Amino acid sequence: MEILLSILNLVLKSLFLGKKYQEAHPREFLQFVVINYYSPLNIIHILEAASTDLWGGYNYDSDVIGATLMTSRGCPFACAFCANLQQKTRFRSAENVIEEIELMIDRYNCRHFRFLDDNVIIDKKRFQKLASKLHDLDIMFRCSISSVLVSDEYMELLYYAGCREVGIGFESADDDILELNNKAGNATTDMHRKAVKLIQKWGIQAKVYIITGLPGETDESIEAVKKFIKDVKPDKWICLLFTPYPGTPIYRNPEMFGVEILHKRFREYVQTYPSKCHVNLKKVGNGEILATNKDLERRYEHLYHWLNKLNPESMEYSSFNG
């Protein structure tokens, strides 16, 4: 590792915006390198399939052995709260993805997967090619896509490929919140409602990701989420508390979104239950506090336990759960 860092130092120290490398803050330097020298690279398609030598299999407390994989990196959308910053999406080739899946089948008899891509179908032609190969492998998988991409054509293709669960970034049933936070593709609550129904129409389970504590939230926003869940009846849900991750639009310009970040102790920025809130919400313009971090924690706790009581079998407890 020391040798690798030394090489990295020699190669990159002269590239940092004309500054002396020694004068740059480590986080500032790392962010510069990632954004300017890593993200634009479109070489992901030539990477070898990930090594599985140390993988022992896991089943998420079920009888099914599953694995995760990522077929692309990046997202074209710019949701204000999302840690996956807007950037050019880079894709692995269909052949490269199939190679990894075949390896997992041959070595571990693993036929259940979770695709970690933000939008696995964002490149239609690529996924059409990938879908036929996935179908031939007779696997089952779950994935995530944006509500604005949900259509009969895509759902038919996903089901054919072996997809049996689709997660959407629902976040909130309050359209004012979705607009303020620049939700992907100008998504609305009505779009989310139609997306859930369309996913279920094709025999695929629909999962919604809920975030409380977002800029613009009120007590009425929480009630709107409860009404959405009861009316639309998604199959699964995950409820998380907003965290102001570094690099996101909200983190960079909190005043624009009516957010006061209380501290930057990043090791405390976690989303597993029980969660702590690290922001106050303020009125844009005059700074009037609309909700304290304790108010936001209370709302989160209320909705979390309401959802769990409504249907414990529909509740998932981590966004990393396969």
Sum up the structure in keywords.
single chain; alpha/beta; TIM Barrel; 3-stranded antiparallel sheet; 10 helices
What does the model show?
Helix 3 (94-108) runs parallel beside helix 4 and helix 4 runs parallel beside helix 5. This protein has helices at residues 2-12, 26-38, 94-108, 124-137, 152-161, 175-180, 189-201, 219-232, 249-252, 293-310, and strands spanning 66-69, 72-73, 90-91, 112-115, 140-145, 163-171, 205-212, 236-241, 259-261, 279-282, 289-291, 315-316. It has 10 helices and 12 strands. Strand 7, helix 8 and strand 8 (236-241) form a beta-alpha-beta unit. With 322 residues, it is an alpha/beta fold. It has one domain (66-316): TIM Barrel, CATH 3.20.20.
In short:
The chain has helices spanning 2-12, 26-38, 94-108, 124-137, 152-161, 175-180, 189-201, 219-232, 249-252, 293-310; strands at residues 66-69, 72-73, 90-91, 112-115, 140-145, 163-171, 205-212, 236-241, 259-261, 279-282, 289-291, 315-316. The chain has 322 residues and is an alpha/beta fold. The chain is globular and about 60 Å long.
Write the topology of this structure.
Layout: H1 2-12, H2 26-38, E1 66-69, E2 72-73, E3 90-91, H3 94-108, E4 112-115, H4 124-137, E5 140-145, H5 152-161, E6 163-171, H6 175-180, H7 189-201, E7 205-212, H8 219-232, E8 236-241, H9 249-252, E9 259-261, E10 279-282, E11 289-291, H10 293-310, E12 315-316
Parallel strand pairs: 1-4, 4-5, 5-6, 6-7, 7-8, 8-12
Antiparallel strand pairs: 2-3, 9-10, 10-11
Helix pairs in contact: 3-4, 4-5
